[in-house]
Amino acid sequence: MRITVFGATGGTGTAVCREAVRRGHEVTAVVRDAARLPGELRDKVDVVVADVMDPAAVESAVAGRDAVMSCLGTRTGRAPTTVHTDGATSIITGMRAAGTRRLLVVSAAAPYPDPGDDLLGRYVAKPLVSRILANPMKDVVRADGVVAGATGIDWTIVRPPRLMDGPPRGAYRLGLDRTPPRARTIRRADLAGAMLDLADDPKSVGHVAWVAN
Questions:
Q1: Alpha-carbon distance 197 to 160, whole Å?
Q2: Beta strands of the chain (E only): which ranges?
Q3: What's the domain range around 31?
Q4: pLDDT (tens digit, 9 = 90+) per residue, 103-141?
Q5: How many whole angstroms separate alpha carbon 146 and alpha carbon 138?
Q6: In the chain, which stretches have pLDDT less than 70?
Q7: How many Å apart are CA 118 and CA 63, to the nearest integer?
Q8: CATH number at residue 33
Q9: C-alpha distances in angstroms, 79 versus 82, 100, 132, 139?
Q10: Are 3 and 69 in contact, with CB atoms under 8 Å apart?
Q11: What positions does the domain NAD(P)-binding occupy (predicted)?
């Protein structure tokens, strides 16, 4: 596949780029600062320095691609932010202009209680995270609404629990529109593998993909 990754210098974006390269995909990594991309990836991906908030720049980066992956994050801590919402809006606008349809967006599980949650997750962990990170989580929820309402886009919202670093465990659990039981953490490397699998899975189009180790 020919893949464009936004947020490629973040933890998840870097993991997606690494796994995509390992699988032999053609990767375009869209970054604000090329120096922040790990050195071993710079010669293996097409690095594009661009502002994700500029739909014209997005259009150029996604034209002719089979899938677009948004791994955007915010470094504002608990402060109010619109990075996810504005990024999703710009990416969708650029994709429509380029005629590119397949979009996968990394969301978060914390703002969304689910029947599959255990008691600890539903009544303790998720409410606590949503309260501590209230502003970033509100932005995630708004962005999810933008993506889910995007006509002409074959979207999948990927909703992981707490993200962990480290080597992949080599397996993940997936639930479409429902979280797997006891979904508490996932390695970023396994999330990357899940996103690449989902990109090529038509059954996930128009659905929320909950993933966990």
A1: 15
A2: 2-6, 26-31, 46-49, 67-70, 102-106, 154-159, 162-164, 173-176, 185-187, 207-212
A3: 2-212
A4: 999 999 888 877 777 766 666 667 666 666 667 789 999
A5: 13
A6: 74-77, 119-125, 127-134
A7: 42
A8: 3.40.50.720
A9: 10, 33, 11, 11
A10: yes
A11: 7-202
CA distances from 32 to 10, 57, 59 (A): 11, 12, 16
Say what the pLDDT of residue 52 is.
95
SS3 for 148-201 is HCCCCCEEEEEECCEEECCCCCCCCEEEECCCCCCCCEEEHHHHHHHHHHHHCC
Residues in the chain: 213
Contact 104, 72 (CB under 8 A): no
Instruction: Please give the pLDDT value at position 81.
Output: 79
How many domains does the chain fold into?
1
For residue 30, the one-letter residue type is V
Q: What is the pLDDT of residue 79?
A: 74
The CA angle 136-202-82, to the nearest 5 degrees, is 15
Q: What is the pLDDT of residue 119?
A: 63
Distance between CA atoms of 22 and 7, rounded to whole angstroms? 19
Classify burial at 143, counting beta carbons within 10 Å of its beta carbon; exposed 0-12, middle 13-18, buried 19 or more: buried
> What does the DSSP 8-state code read for residue 141?
H
Do residues 47 and 37 lie in contact, with contact meaning Cβ atoms separated by under 8 Å?
yes
